[in-house]
Amino acid sequence: MAPRADDIIDRRRIRRKLTFWRVATLLVAAIAIAGFGAWGMRDSWPGQGRDHIAQVKIGGTITEDGELLRRLEDIAESDSVKGVILSINSPGGTTAGGEAIFDAVRRIAEKKPVTAQVGTLAASAGYMIASASDHIVARKSSIVGSIGVLVQFPDLTGLMDKVGIKLEEVKSSPLKAEPSPFNPTTDEERAMIRAMIMDSYEWFVGLVIERRPLSRAEVLALADGSIFTGRQALDLKLVDALGGEQEVIAWLKTRGVDEALEVREWKPRNTGGFLFGQSMLRAVADAIGLPGGSADLLRELGGERLFLDGLLSLWQPASGVTGER
């Protein structure tokens, strides 16, 4: 029996309604995704929010961290940041990393007051970064100092002899790729490394002389690699006060920063956004009754991008000779 014209019209009308509601559902899902994305990123960099005091935590091994440098740059440019607290807990790290962060902190200090709050440790490059601030506060039992430069490299020649390994090499000049863990270190190689260390050491000493109320003779007396407690560091003028957040906020007040302002931590961007986005898209697809593959469709439509911060910082350590501050 052939279908009647009325039946055909009804079926087409139903299909149109279903298509409309499917499209409407996808739009509602997209809005929900955007809302969840905004909520999930609410603790991200608060640069354009209310006036506040920005806190940046600098911990672990210091490297030339591109994400951190961009964060510091945004803090410098943010009109809502009225003062900055650097919370430092680091044993030091690479020379270039300390230099890069030092310079970034100084650029902030040209626009707004910056103070450093030392936790357990601010040594070597960690102290270098603290000295970039306008005021350093440490705990009585904090460890501060270790002003100096170090280069370390292993000597594997004894092990190679024991296991019967011999290295053959052809190079353009005697100092190329030296010192090497596969050859005994020569006097010429040691002289080259020492010249490099002393040049970097003089630069480090110069930073401390520039930033601290100490003469060159006083800094040189302290720059023998020694570490000090916060109490000792205060007497030696390596720090300005003892205490914690209450003391750094009190100092910021003397620089015109309202002590009632909220202290907000500027955290690293969330690098787990991809997984969060995937799971959220699947949840939205399931909630609205779409088949499993629809999460891929939402992703292709751009939904997943709402959960990605777009900022990734990757670091791969180089092999061979390493330098530390």
Question: What features would you describe in this structure?
Answer:
The strands form two sheets. Strands 1, 2, 3, 4, 5, 7, 8 and 9 form an eight-stranded mixed beta sheet that branches. It is flat and about 100 Å long. Helix content is about 45%, strand content about 15%. It is an alpha/beta fold and about 325 residues long. The chain has three domains: about 15-40 and about 270-305; about 45-145 and about 225-270, 2-enoyl-CoA Hydratase, Chain A, domain 1 (Alpha-Beta Complex); about 155-215, no CATH class. It has eleven helices and ten strands. Helix 10 (about 275-285) packs across helix 11.
Name a few traits of the molecule.
325 residues, 45% helix, alpha/beta, 2-enoyl-CoA Hydratase, Chain A, domain 1, 3 domains, flat, disordered C terminus, 8-stranded mixed beta sheet, two-stranded antiparallel sheet
CATH class division of the largest domain: Alpha Beta
Count of alpha/pi helices: 11
CATH topology of the largest domain: 2-enoyl-CoA Hydratase, Chain A, domain 1
Q: In percent, how helical is the residue content? A: 40-55%
> Kindly state the mean pLDDT as a whole number?
80
Low-confidence stretches: 38-43, 271-281, 292-323
Backbone shape:
flat
CATH-level-2 architecture of the largest domain? Alpha-Beta Complex
Number of strands: 10
Give the structural class. alpha/beta
How many strands, which pairing sense, and closed or not: the largest β-sheet? 8 strands, mixed
What's the SSE pattern? HEHEHEHEEEHHHEHEHEHHE
Count of discrete domains: 3
